[in-house]
Amino acid sequence: MRSTRTDPSGPSDRDDGRAPRTAVDAFRSLMSGFPSGVAVVTTVDGSGAPRGLTCTSMCGVGLHPPSLLVCVDNRSGTLRALCESGAFAVNLLHTGGRSTAETFATRGRDRFADVAWEPTARYRVPRLTEDAHATAECRVLRTHPAGDHTVVIGAVEEVLSRPGAPLLYGRRRFADWSRLAEPTTGER
């Protein structure tokens, strides 16, 4: 069994406070082996312009109140806008949303130019109307700095759903949940 040390308190070949390259690579490899659903987190900035990014770091937090968390890169303009507006939407992509996932993962382009969206009822943040099988409209409860990302906890105020199989991402590729969820030969 191969082991790579990733303990940030252990010896490091760097003195700038960042993890050594081997630890970062080992962590990326570890996390790519944990497939997850794909979401696009959306909000609006101070001028009302839509902002958004692709996110695979999302999970439920609790039921009272219904809440979830997303982790967003500190350098992201979407994070700044989300904190300013105090609201965001988590758009869970279906299998037809792969190009939207790729679009929102790319910097330096108008991410909303080629996707269908409308403002949500309560907070007026973008809801992806064609590429998402579910959208949660959230109010920011808290933010917590966590290294190069910020954990954003949101109270889920509204959920809109429609049929569709979730889009998955793992091992640096996309997968179709409906194809994976079918029983294999001999399974019942």
List keywords for this structure.
alpha+beta, 188 residues, seven-stranded antiparallel beta sheet, disordered N terminus
What form results from the Cα inertia axes? Answer: globular
Strand and helix order:
HEEEEEHEHEEEEEEH
Strand order, main sheet: write it out: 3-2-6-9-10-5-4
Structural class: alpha+beta
Largest sheet, in brief, is: 7 strands, antiparallel
Report on the architecture of this protein.
The chain has 188 residues and is α+β, with helices and mostly antiparallel strands. It is built from four helices and twelve strands. The protein has helices spanning 21-32, 77-85, 98-104, 177-181; strands at residues 36-37, 39-44, 50-55, 58-63, 66-73, 87-93, 117-119, 126-128, 132-146, 149-161, 167-170, 173-176. The strands form three sheets. It has a seven-stranded antiparallel sheet with strand order 3-2-6-9-10-5-4, sandwiched between helices. Strands 1-11-12 form a three-stranded antiparallel sheet. The chain has a two-stranded antiparallel sheet with strand order 7-8. The radius of gyration is 18 Å and the shape is globular. Residues 1-15 have low confidence and may be disordered.
Describe the structure in brief.
Helices cover 18% and strands 41% of the residues. The protein has helices at 21-32, 77-85, 98-104, 177-181, and strands at 36-37, 39-44, 50-55, 58-63, 66-73, 87-93, 117-119, 126-128, 132-146, 149-161, 167-170, 173-176.
Give the topology, please.
Elements: H1 21-32, E1 36-37, E2 39-44, E3 50-55, E4 58-63, E5 66-73, H2 77-85, E6 87-93, H3 98-104, E7 117-119, E8 126-128, E9 132-146, E10 149-161, E11 167-170, E12 173-176, H4 177-181
Antiparallel strand pairs: 1-11, 2-3, 2-6, 4-5, 5-10, 6-9, 7-8, 9-10, 11-12
